[in-house]
């Protein structure tokens, strides 16, 4: 159940078998079905979730419109970090796009591991740094790049998401209407076709 969790961990930080056993005692396995909630807006986010298998999304709803801020596939972590770290109500909802298997770390386990396991602390610091860099890149591209470029970057960076997530959700993630994204995809397809004729 924890294979991918530790594989990803060891890719970043070297772990001895003893350290792995110690960390494992803090982990909680959880299965959730497609469309089931991991977290609902207004609740306190009590866990960081690592995706062993499946796909989730994190989003907010304003005026009946969904705004997706994150997709999480195998090997990714997902949480409302603000709520998790501050104990304040979550502003995001997290649910499963597919039947999923997760590894959860509770707030108290997280705090204890930070104190007792220097390698866990290093790993978490790397994860949070990565998340911050990804967020900054996304902000920069949404401010400065034309829609076609943004979609092209998304497809190149996250080919798995494009295969597994409905188009209207990708549109929501990009801050576009489904119609706009559909036009962009058509235009890019035509450009590809035209290019292959030359």
Automatic annotation (TrEMBL):
Gene3D superfamilies: Jelly Rolls. InterPro entries: cNMP-bd_dom, cNMP-bd_dom_sf, RmlC-like_jellyroll. Pfam families: cNMP_binding. Residues 14-114 form the Cyclic nucleotide-binding domain. This is Crp/Fnr family transcriptional regulator. It comes from Xanthocytophaga flava.
């Amino acid at each position: 159940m924890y294979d991918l969790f530790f594989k990803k961990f060891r890719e970043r930080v070297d772990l001895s078998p003893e350290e792995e056993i110690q960390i494992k005692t803090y982990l909680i396995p959880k299965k959730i079905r497609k469309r089931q909630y991991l977290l609902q807006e207004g609740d306190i986010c009590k866990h960081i979730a690592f995706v062993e298998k499946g796909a989730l999304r994190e989003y907010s709803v304003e005026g009946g419109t969904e705004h997706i801020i994150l997709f999480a596939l195998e090997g990714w972590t997902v949480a409302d970090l603000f709520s998790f770290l501050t104990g304040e109500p979550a502003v995001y909802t997290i649910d499963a796009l597919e039947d999923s298997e997760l590894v959860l770390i509770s707030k108290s386990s997280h705090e204890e591991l930070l104190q007792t396991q220097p390698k866990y602390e290093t790993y978490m610091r790397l994860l949070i740094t990565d998340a911050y860099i990804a967020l900054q890149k996304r902000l920069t591209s949404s401010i400065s790049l034309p829609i076609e470029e943004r979609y092209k970057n998304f497809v190149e960076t996250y080919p798995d998401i494009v295969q597994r997530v409905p188009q209207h959700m990708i549109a929501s993630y990009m801050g576009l209407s489904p119609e706009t994204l559909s036009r962009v995809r058509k235009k890019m397809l035509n450009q590809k076709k035209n290019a292959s004729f030359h």
